[in-house]
Amino acid sequence: MSERIKKECMLCGDIFTARNGKNRMCDKCRELTYPHLAKQRSKKSNFRDHLCVEVHQLKMYNHQNGTRLTYGQWKGQKFLGKIK
Ligand SMILES: [Zn+2]
User: Fold this and answer.
1) Hey, CA dihedral for 29, 25, 14, 5, is it positive or negative?
2) Beta bridge partners of 27
3) How many angstroms separate the alpha carbon of residue 12 from the centre of ligand 1?
4) CA of 26 to the centre of ligand 1 (A)
5) What is the pTM of this model?
């Protein structure tokens, strides 16, 4: 029985397909939360992946802080050291 459940990610709000009912984060957020797991899965990363992760981090940041920063604003804040 491989039932696929559509769930909303608890961090970024993306709709993702959960492989089991316990999953509460999408793959991206789980990789960001547990980087050591992500490393095992894919060793090669390219620019597109990197950008995708950054966009995801921005979504997570906005979600967690209740802000609506654009990508540019977020990058600026990061550059100024206001966001780690
Ligand atoms: Zn997510």
Assistant:
1) positive
2) none
3) 4
4) 4
5) 0.49
